[in-house]
Design brief:
Elements lengths: L1 H16 E17 L6 H4 L11 E14 L3 E14 L9 E14 L2 E7 L26 E7 L2 E2 L6 E11 L10 E12 L4 E13 L2 E2 L3 E2 L4 H9 L9 H5 L4 E13 L3 E11 L2 H4 L7 E9 L8 E8 L9 E3 L2 H5 L10 E3 L17 E2 L2 E2 L6 E2 L11 E3 L1 E13 L3 E14 L14 E12 L7 E11 L5 E14 L1
Antiparallel strand pairs: 1-2, 1-27, 2-3, 3-4, 4-5, 5-6, 6-8, 7-8, 8-9, 9-10, 10-13, 11-12, 13-14, 14-15, 15-16, 16-23, 17-18, 19-20, 21-22, 23-24, 24-25, 25-26, 26-27
Length: 488
Amino acid sequence: MKKLLFYIGIFCSISLNAQNWEVDWYGAIRGAGTSGQYMPFWGRTGEDGILPVSSSGLASVGADISYTHDKGWFFESGANLVGTYVGNNPLSSKGVNGLVDRLYLSGGWKMLHLDSGLRPRERELTDVSISGGNVMYSRNSRNMPGINAWSDWIYLEKGHWVAIKGNLAHYQTIDNRYVSGTKIHNKSVAVKFALGRKVDFSFTFEHWAQWGGNSPLYGLQPSSFRDYVRIFMAESGGDGATESDQINVLGNHLGRESARLDWKHDDFILTFQYDKPFEDGTGKEYQNAPDGIWSVQYMSRNRKSLVTDVVLEYIKTNWQSGTVHDRPATEEEIANQDPSDPFYGRVIVGGCDNYFANGEYRSGWTYYNRIIGLPLILPSRPNENGVTMDVVSTRLRGGHLGMKGWLAGKVPYALKATYTVNYGAYNQEAGSVFAKNPSQLSLALEVGWVKPFKLPVDISLGIYGDVGELYQDSVGLTLKLGYRNTIN
């Protein structure tokens, strides 16, 4: 009895010291229809990769639980289950599909976090941005199972003039892909400097790598702890690696470098950001500049105003460090080369980066047939086994406008407009659809109705359109009913 009273006392003490104990329940049903074979771009893009590509029905249900203690400790857990029905799926004969969108357990202390399971990351720009502020991870594909240790900004001194943050993560792919069981390594570091009390400048370096797995051509790929160290340090592979990985680096390495300026006005925050991808050393050395996403974002501090968020983005990925990867060496250059070098007689220039594509990890930077990063870069159509075998369009230029807010403070809306000119890839086949540089305009307007007639549901209507030479001209409509209840 004394032990029971002791444990009850401990539980009551924890409960009384708690600052926040919250349960958030939600569910939604969504119907989507289109005049074409596929939903328009914005009717099937984003939302963590759960939206079907054609006319469909979708239902989801989930909950999130959070607990915060007054000593700075916190705990979070949640799940979201999704079911879809597609009557005429152009990519699969399977009409009914169920999936686990999110299933996670997280915890931490003050600025330190540890996430495990299926959990998306927070966006770095508004959700009406084309990439969410991260060219490598736009939340366009399904969530991957893994573990991610990360931090919020940690200030190094009391004046809050300098801060750092970062992460270290490991993910495991479970989709049907060319190299089955591919592992994904990720880490980042960011530094922020205060340029006065209202202006911050930050720089982020983020590294991703695909490694391990079982290749149908080369068999099981190196995946020991020593190989993980090679991946972490971006070193060449050992004896068990392919010839290419022994010459270059083990696995498929890619990442981003981002510079950002935030001006914090009393009424709004204005953000300028340059987010640049890299595929190899030339990208890290800025040979591929000015490729990347150039963004300007306005965010009102009044979250019920007519315009709460506006983002303008210029997207450029067509340079890719140049048109030539290597060239014949001159006699003078050959005289200084090692005859045993695989590139003997050649000089590496470093062009043709071919973002998100890879010769050995042929499914590239995709997950469940969706691009993980910038969704304007296009994967190939899945083959008869449902496997993405290539990334077919990596070179493009374009612009994007995203805006959202509240009409009369009661009706939420979101507007998105994206225009691109698409060049495909260097060294593509002469008959490629991208040889004529097709242009494309994709539009979206979403309007909501919060608890109409005092009903316990929210209603939202979406109207989408594609006009251009890349996708089939089409119009799409969606109707969504959502329910949410929060218990404190």
